[in-house]
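ok here's DNA-binding transcriptional regulator, LysR family, seq below lol
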Amino acid sequence: MDFKQLRYFVAVYEEGHVGRAAERLSISQPALSQQIRHLEQNLDVSLFERSSKRLLPTLAAHTLYNHALPLLDGLQRAREALGNFKGQALRTLAIGVLQTVHTSLVPQMLERVRKAQPHLVVQIYELTGLEIERRLLNGALDIGISYLPPRQPGLHGVMLYEDELTLVIPADHPLREFKKVSMSQAAELPMLLLGEEFQVRQIWQTQLANLGRRPQVQAELNNMAGILDSLPHTRLATVLPGRSQKALGNHELLWKPLTEPRVPLKVGLVCRDVQRQQASLALLRTLLEEVMNAPDERSATLDGLS
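and the structure came out like this:
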């Protein structure tokens, strides 16, 4: 048994599926299956009960998983500590970002990270809020950029900025002359929305439920840019964070503040281990604040949101 086999085992255990685990590890499915079989042979135990749909961990697998996590964590810490002795050592930082904040923050943040830490390799994953939290908990991500507060116990958040949910309609929509739209009015509108796995959709549904209402869903897309491209050709509306207008604004669309009540959104950095990620959190927070306050033309879309 070696650390590579342990890492492979942890991925299969957490995913419950060889195909998904292989994708996560960037190796072929047959190679992963072979490694798991070798591990079972070396340990002389059965780790998974195989069914047609997923792998079910045995009691031995549960025991091994509980021992494997601290071992792998210790190995990573050792590598990071030894990296300090190499002045030019490469280090990787895996960040999960919500689709609804990705467009406005990440492109300009990446260039600043490159200048501040030229030997840091940044891996960006565009994910739903639920997937960001799941990957933070299982160690697949270091930091998330998501809505606060985190929903899963064991995660911690650091505030970045506030936003609010906004109604988006085509320029010829019946509500085009309204300066703002109440939640009750918006509840009546047929909608083109992000899927239910997206946190913005969940927040919208919760707000309507508080009014005893349900969203009038006519269509769904899993891509925010696709929704904004589609709206001008429909009489549908959608709800998105207000700052998306500055990053993805379209003259064919109108953005109307929602009121009665407002729906505030808090965006921040999320992690599992604040102490371990303290340096990375401080770096990202500083660089993201620079992006949001940058006076130049490229960063004008982020002004005033510190």
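fwiw The CA atoms of residues 90 and 119 lie 5 Å apart. kinda neat tbh
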